[in-house]
Structure formats: C-alpha cells, structure tokens
Write a structure and sequence with these properties.
By secondary structure, the protein is of the alpha+beta class. About 60% of the residues lie in helices and about 15% in strands. It is built from 10 helices and 7 strands. The strands form 2 sheets. The protein has a 5-stranded mixed beta sheet. It has a two-stranded antiparallel sheet with strand order 1-3. Strand 6 and strand 7 form a beta hairpin. Helix 4 packs parallel to helix 5 and helix 9 packs antiparallel against helix 10. The longest helix has about 50 residues. About 0% of the residues have low confidence.
Length: about 350
C-alpha cells in the first residue's frame, strides 16, 4: 500500500498541469515572437515595412514589451482561472469525503448538499439513499437485539429458578426437570429463529435464485410436517395448478411456507388448506386453517418481530415470512375466514417475464 503522505490532491494536480501547459505556451510565444522579429530584420521585408512606416509600429522596443506584457497578463489570468476551477472541482469532493467519513463513524443523517454538476449530484443522491437504508437497518437491529435480550431472559430465568428449587430441595426433581426441558426447547427454538432472521437480514448476504416448481415446493413442505399434522389429527387439503415454475431463492421460499404451515397446524381444528395459482401475471399462495382465527387486536401486529398472539411460540416465525416475501418483491396479508373460522395467509408474488408456467 502506498504511503498517503506521498499522494497529491486533485487540486494540486490540476494547478500543476495548468502551470506546465501555460509555461510552455508562454515560452513558445516568446520564441516565435523573437524568431519572427529576427527573420524580418534580416530580410527584404524590413525595407518594405520601413517604406510603409510599419517597422517601428510593430517591432520597436515599446511595442515589443507591450506584447510581451500582454502575453504575461494572459498567463496570469489563466493561472488564476486554473486555481479557481480546480477549487470548484475539489471542494464538493472534500465535502462528500467528510460526509462518507461520518457514515463510517455511525452518523446516518442525510445531508442537504446541492451540486451544479450532475455527476456529483448523482453521487450525493446515492450516498443519501445508502445513509437512509443504513439508518433503517441500524434501528431495526437495535430493536431486534433489545427484544431478543428480553425474550432470552424469560426462559433463562425460569430454568435458573427451577434448577435452584431442585438444589434447595423445595421442588420435585421430576416436575422441575420437565419444566426445564420445556424451557430449554423453547430457548433452543428461539435462538435458532434469531440466528436465521439475522442471516436473512444481513445486508451483505447474497442468495442465488433458481427456477423451481412452487406446487412441488409446497407439497414438500407439507410432507416434512406430515407427522406433526397426523399427531394433531389434521389433514392437508391441496388446491393448485398442475405445475407453476417460479424464479426464487428455494431455501428461503421453503422456509417461508414451512413457517406458515407450522403456524396453521398450531391453530387448526381438523384441516389446513394449501393453494397456489397463477393469476394475471401474479402468483398467489394461500395457507388457511379452520381454527378460531386471529383476534382483531392482534391482526395489525401479527407480522411484527417478537409479537406473540394467543398460543404463539417465539414471535419470530411470521416476521421471517414477511422478510422473505419482501425480499422477493412480494406482499403478504392475513385475514380471518369469511365463514368466521380460521385465519387465511395470502402471499402475492410478481411473476418475472420469461418464466414458464
């Protein structure tokens, strides 16, 4: 890596280039002028100029120095123009550089700079857009960790209390051990969900899209949870096209559908309906259960992180679904069934041009 102390600023580079060009232009002018004067003095043109009274008008000492002074004035004006031009070019760059340094220190406040040059103005707009995204991401992360610390504290305190009860002999080991195991499972699931949502939220994470059959993807998700459905006496009802190819991130889309099915199984009475269709250039996926539905108070908050409605688990599963669908430029909504039974989650995904059905 080069030593920064040896680097030259743009301002100095521009001035140096202008001065070099002007110096050679000035020297060349002097040489040409002097050479022309010598040639005229040594030629017959001198007699012609004398005859018409032009010799001293052009080449006398006073005129000669006047012309040299005029060239020098041009040189000085050009030098000043170079200085102010280079300052005008570098001043916005210095401002943007200080702004970028502030971003590096964690200051995500947008600036109100306005530049006459389109390129610099476009660069400033891009930096402001990045700052707003970083600010939103920073606030989300702070809220996430605040909520996470609270959610982790609850099962940990419960485990500690029951362990101390066993140690003090005031709790039956079998009953306490059962509670400890339940809280440990809850804690494990919570940590797993938190790690996953941190991964998909990471702005540096990149995923590769691939074309998959959404019908088969949903069937595979249901098959993975068939044992849980059988345990609760719940059956799956499918309604879908023959096949529906869609370009997405397979592992993320599978996780979103898995979470919706898992949520539906938690509240279903006897069945979970799964449907996927292509309508007017959009892919629609529905996951519905025949449970008692979601309370009106909970509906507006159902996708918020760490929000747990009645019978909720970690409060992260549905927020993961929303994040994944948003990353696929889609939308998700929830409502209670028109028959007054169960909740219906509807995903709308834009189908990209060129994708086959």
């Amino acid at each position: 890596m080069k030593d920064k102390s040896k680097k030259t600023s743009i301002h100095k580079r521009i001035l140096r280039a202008f001065f070099i060009v002007l110096f050679f232009a000035f020297a060349l002018t002097l040489l040409v002028f002097d050479f022309g004067r010598q040639q005229v003095e040594n030629s017959q043109a001198r007699e012609i100029l004398y005859e018409y009274g032009l010799w001293y008008g052009f080449f006398d000492s006073r005129t000669h120095w006047f012309l040299l002074g005029f060239v020098g004035l041009i040189f000085a004006v050009a030098a000043l123009a170079a200085y102010f031009l280079s300052s005008a070019l570098t001043r916005p760059i210095v401002k943007l550089s200080k702004f970028a340094q502030g971003i590096g220190r964690g200051d995500f406040s947008p600036n109100d700079f306005e530049f006459a040059d389109k390129e610099l103005d476009d660069l400033n707009s891009a930096l402001n857009k990045s700052v707003r995204q970083l600010d939103a991401y920073d606030r989300e992360q702070k809220t996430f960790f605040q909520n996470a610390s609270h959610e982790l504290r609850t099962p940990l305190m419960s485990i500690k209390c029951y362990a101390e009860g066993i140690s003090a002999g005031i709790m039956k080991p079998d009953d306490a051990a059962e509670t400890i195991l339940q809280e440990t499972d809850r804690l494990t699931e919570l940590v797993k969900e938190m790690l996953y949502i941190s991964q998909i939220d990471n702005i540096t994470t990149t995923y590769k899209k691939a074309e998959v059959d959404l019908v088969q993807l949903i069937k595979d998700c249901a098959a993975r949870q068939q044992a849980q459905a059988d345990k609760g006496g719940i059956s799956f009802v499918f309604d879908h096209d023959d096949s529906l190819n869609y370009k997405c991130v397979p592992e993320l889309m599978s996780r979103a559908v898995d979470n919706l099915i898992s949520n539906a199984l938690r509240y279903a009475a006897s069945e979970v309906s799964l449907s996927v269709h292509l309508r007017s250039g959009y892919v629609g996926i529905k996951v519905a259960d025949d449970g008692k539905g979601i309370s009106e108070e909970a509906l507006p908050h159902i996708f918020e992180r760490f929000y747990k409605g009645e019978g909720g688990n970690t409060g992260i599963g549905l927020s993961i679904v929303k994040t994944i669908i948003s990353q696929h430029k889609g939308s998700i909504a929830v409502e209670n069934s028109g028959q007054g039974q169960g909740a219906v989650f509807t995903i709308i995904l834009p189908k990209e041009k060129g994708e086959s059905k």
